[in-house]
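<goal> How does this chain fold?
<sample>
Here is the protein in question

***
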Amino acid sequence: MRRGRGPASASSTASSSSALFGGESATSSPALDTRIPDLLKELHQLIQQTQDERARSEHNLTNIQKTHERIQYEQKGKSKAVSPYFKSKLRGLYSTAKADAEVEADLLRKCLDKIAQIKSIRNERRIAAKSAGIFMEQEPPRKTMRRGVLMTLLQQSAMTLPLWIGKPGESPPPLCGAVQAGSDYVAKPGDKVAARVKGPDGDEQWILAEVVSFNTGTNKYEVDDIDSEEGKERHTLSRRRVIPLPQWKANPETDPEALFHKDTLVLALYPQTTCFYRALIHAPPTRPQDDYSVLFEDTSYADGYSPPLTVAQRYVVSCKESKKR
């Protein structure tokens, strides 16, 4: 029940792996080739500006620390009240520190935007190459990928999912953590989704898949099974059988409302497989780098649920079905 589907050939190379999770697998147009280096240069400049801004603001932070130390020294054995002079000085220092932090935060957001643009272009190149059936010599078709490589890629994809960092008072967007997309949302080619498909024995299961296209006329998706041996197992599915995966991690420290709460019924990717199963949230993440702790439905246990297992935010989505208990 819990085994991964369709283990791939063991006589393989890991180089084909980048074609699945954002790497480049073919040559592309000169315009795109030019744009990525330009964006990388802009990203480098923004990172340098961020570093310079951080170094510049360090002097003010040092002054804040020294001012507090001076206050503590002068208050020894005296009244605990802070003098008007120090109150005014600290107010000015903290005002400057707040402005410096806002400048740095703005630069970091611009860095994240550049990274998102680069990833989007690389993904467009990969999808275009995949549609044309083009592969680089060092990146053969997916049939040569080992299962261990695929599992590592799934883990890396979860780890590198960007963390949503909003401005003060800004709500997390759709597809951030547990925040669902609107009913009119259409996943883009290359997006990873949970897809409900029929298996060889006729049973239905939720699998990890990649969007190939969406037909507005039929209102149906074409998706590729991420774990098909030849990389060619394609399914045509209605929108209700496709659930987009989160595109940002939610920060438990700033946006706990964007996470699934304890005892929420979800679909979660079972560890070391490419299948989603029903599960209950045992504990949500408490830090940005943490995973969910979930209880998978499993009849081999007395209470019908497995012991707690960890699953990354990337692979936990809402389940519309009712609970067993």
Q: What stands out?
A: Residues 5-19, 136-140 have pLDDT under 50 and may be disordered. The radius of gyration is 25 Å. The first strand starts at residue 192 and ends at 198.
